Amino acid sequence: MTNKTSPREQALAFRSLHVPGRPLVLPNVWDVASARLVEDAGAAAVATTSAGLAWELGAADGDRLSGGDAFAALTRIADAVRVPVSADVETGYADDAAGVGATIRAVLAAGAVGVNIEDGLYGGGASLRPVAEQAARIAAAREAAEAAGVPLFVNARVDTYLRGAGGLEETLERAAAFLAAGADGVFVPGAVDPVTVKALAEGIEGPLNVMAGPGAPAVAELAALGVARVSVGSGIAQAAHALVRRAARELLDAGTYDALAAGLDYGELNGLLGGSSQKA
């Protein structure tokens, strides 16, 4: 995609979109087609979902996708859109802080200007990475971005509610430590109760990102609670894959095609990706 502004300008534009009470809304994407569709729908920015990206590339979510595969996919996505791109890099595709710095350099090289880094752990044992260790990883991310001259938006994901590993007090403590280490915003998936969201928005000294979905308050209500960013994680990818299974089962079991009736027009989708509107 041509006519994109410089990485620094993209990063500054992305930062400016995080406004409490007027949140940035991100329908998360996992490949070029979903990114173009989301951009075409009017999104001010594009953010990847690590789960959707992993599934697209044949891996399970949870730090099982290699950084190289993720960066290659991210490059294709960033090249396909004009709006700023934020990358979900799970725990950082690295064992230590120095490795996280290398990941950030690869993310910037791919064309993204935002990043999510989570504090959850996989593989058994503790649910969350120790605060000091995670803070060091965030500091390494900030240092790498500053060295590159790009004001990367570092979104520190705190998995206390998602993992059932802590409540408001622990979440606020982690958020404060991560912001002090260089994070720009805090992402608290699993917290959608209005009372909790309001307390988080008031207690965190930075933009709050909430992960929404069925059963969560509408964007307007989250905005009124002080949220600055609303994303949906793997929700859209899950819905898309549910359609694949539903259509396949209908075709194989009943021999009918009703699930395909609401599909996108061939010409519209093909044209969105730079092709002809006529079937070959």
From TrEMBL:
Gene Ontology MF annotations: lyase activity
Statement: the UniProt record of this protein carries the keyword Lyase: yes
Top-level taxon of the source organism: Bacteria
N-terminal signal peptide: none
InterPro entries in alphabetical order: ICL/PEPM, Pyrv/PenolPyrv_kinase-like_dom, Pyrv_kinase-like_dom_sf
Keywords assigned: Lyase
Keyword Phosphoprotein: no
Name of one Pfam family that matches: PEP_mutase
PANTHER family: CARBOXYPHOSPHONOENOLPYRUVATE PHOSPHONOMUTASE-LIKE PROTEIN (AFU_ORTHOLOGUE AFUA_5G07230), PHOSPHOENOLPYRUVATE CARBOXYLASE
Descriptive protein name: Isocitrate lyase/phosphoenolpyruvate mutase family protein
The species this protein was found in: Streptomyces cynarae
